[in-house]
Design brief:
Number of domains: 1
Radius of gyration: 19 Å
Shape: globular
Order of helices and strands: EEHEEHHEHEEEHEHEEEEE
Helix content: 10-25%
CATH superfamily: Glycosidases
CATH architecture: Alpha-Beta Barrel
Largest sheet: 8 strands, mixed, barrel
CATH class: Alpha Beta
Oligomer: single chain
CATH topology: TIM Barrel
Strand content: 15-25%
Length: about 350
């Protein structure tokens, strides 16, 4: 989730998502079928610093009750967030159970050889899975794929059938990466929804050479960063999404989900029929805040009128409205990382 998540076209945190793979002990290779594997740097090589003020805040937060109402969980995603103490683990800063971790399993630009980074915390994944499998708390580890639109497809020809195939390819690589992670003896992925990260990252060369990830422009080649045509039909964007979702659900037990936000979604899919995804799980980063003094409760920030906003025809009352990245996304910086709220009652 490039959580930089462009609200206005610029990635949410500059390149705050951490242009590194953080976490774990040692290196993990995420193997994509038929391709060279991607080496992921371990947390041993990534200094995770916690200031005295952060430690104090975390200690105070541990005394809080955690997320609510019952069935909601706090969690984190992508870049490693320092989770201290012993199992069962507590959510940093706010307390309560550490309810889940969502990491970037793959990146279209990395797969195409454009040097796009992957962002994964082995430590946070282990902690989330420990809480889930051993203590029956939270949802465990989940994954998202940083998705490329039709305009970065190396075989782009302007047809919906090719866009659909490009979506299928990305789903196939996603499932291969999940299988490679599990079979190598590393973390399991119990969260039953795989998210397509669909956004407009802006100028973020560590992640992608295409500022719009190929959703609104066609590039001269996947890695060139040079626009050939500044237009992609909405029908092709939707075919790309459909190809991914249909392949994923037909070839695995995972459900399809989307990570995005209302403004970005409209800029890609418009407001017509192709923009509607009423039966697809959603993870939104709107609204977001850099201030941690008002933590979420039941899809709204406590003590404020700020509530989450979903997209594609859904709202926070929809049965497929599943997750909210309420801080760390959309360009917000909070000094810790990405914080999420998860409605475990809606988990398939």
């Amino acid at each position: 989730m490039r959580r930089h998540g462009p609200r206005s076209g610029g990635w949410r945190r500059g390149v705050g998502r951490a242009a590194v793979i953080a976490g774990g002990t040692g290196l993990l290779t995420l193997a994509a079928a038929g391709t060279s594997s991607a080496s992921v740097a371990s947390s041993a090589a990534v200094a995770v610093s916690t200031t005295a003020a952060q430690r104090s805040a975390a200690t105070a937060g541990a005394r809080l009750a955690g997320d609510g109402p019952p069935g909601f969980w706090y969690g984190t995603d992508s870049r490693q967030v320092a989770v201290s103490g012993t199992a069962p683990y507590s959510e940093p800063v706010f307390g309560g159970s550490y309810g889940g971790y969502i990491g970037m399993i793959g990146n279209w630009a990395h797969r195409e050889g454009c040097h796009g980074v992957l962002v994964w915390s082995f430590a946070n994944s282990l902690q989330a899975n420990t809480d889930y499998f051993r203590y029956h708390k939270g949802v465990g580890t989940g994954v998202y794929w940083f998705m490329g639109g039709p305009g970065v497809d190396p075989h782009y020809n302007g047809t919906a059938s090719e866009a659909y195939t490009w979506g299928q390819d990305q789903a196939r690589w996603t499932l291969a990466d999940i299988a490679g992670m599990v079979h190598s003896g590393h973390r399991r992925v119990p969260l039953p929804v795989v998210f397509m990260d669909i956004e407009i990252p802006g100028n973020a060369p560590a992640y992608t050479p295409a500022p719009d990830n190929g959703w609104n422009s066609v590039y001269t080649s996947s890695c060139s960063g040079r626009v050939r045509v500044r237009y992609v039909p909405v029908a092709l964007d939707r075919a790309d999404l459909n190809g991914f979702a249909n392949y994923l659900t037909s070839q695995s037990s995972y459900k399809a989900g989307v990570y995005s936000a209302p403004g970005i979604w409209r800029s890609i899919f418009g407001t017509g029929p192709d923009s509607q995804i009423p039966n697809t799980y959603e993870w939104t980063y709107a609204s977001f805040t850099s201030r941690l003094s008002h933590r979420p409760y039941g899809w709204c920030l406590s003590g404020t009128s700020t509530c989450t906003r979903f997209f594609g025809g859904q709202n926070r009352y929809s049965k497929y409205a599943l997750m909210w990245q309420w801080s760390g996304g959309g360009g917000s910086v909070n000094g810790y990382g990405d914080f999420d709220q998860i409605d475990g009652r809606r988990m398939p």
